Amino acid sequence: MVVETWLFSEQEAAELIQVSWLEVTGSVKLEPLTRYEISFKLSFRRDSFGWSGAPIFLMAKVGKKGKYKWKRLKELDNLPKDPIMVPTDDSFTIEPILSNEPDKRLYFGLYEVWSGKWKGGLKVHEAIVRKLG
Where on the tree of life does the source sit, at the highest rank (predicted)? Predict the structure, then answer.
């Protein structure tokens, strides 16, 4: 079951023309005692540039004061032109929260803010937060 998804048509996909700072963020309210998985559907344009070796991370935390969980997305070094879901090697899961958790909001995103390199041609087709069994 998908909790939240932001879906764009091919013409509406969010496309980075030229940036030195990547920050794609979202948030959703979590249900207690439920695990979640976060993924993004991404692709590159044929004329993309600047992504090789760029340290792109998927990061998430529960609550504004929560501690970030993160994962480097190595597959973006060789992202195909056709859209794929990332991460591909294993899932990025958020463990269940308790019902008495004061801030039940999940904050998540894709980030590359460290290299300072100019890059472009990345398309963001979907951001998905999915409940797990």
Answer: Eukaryota
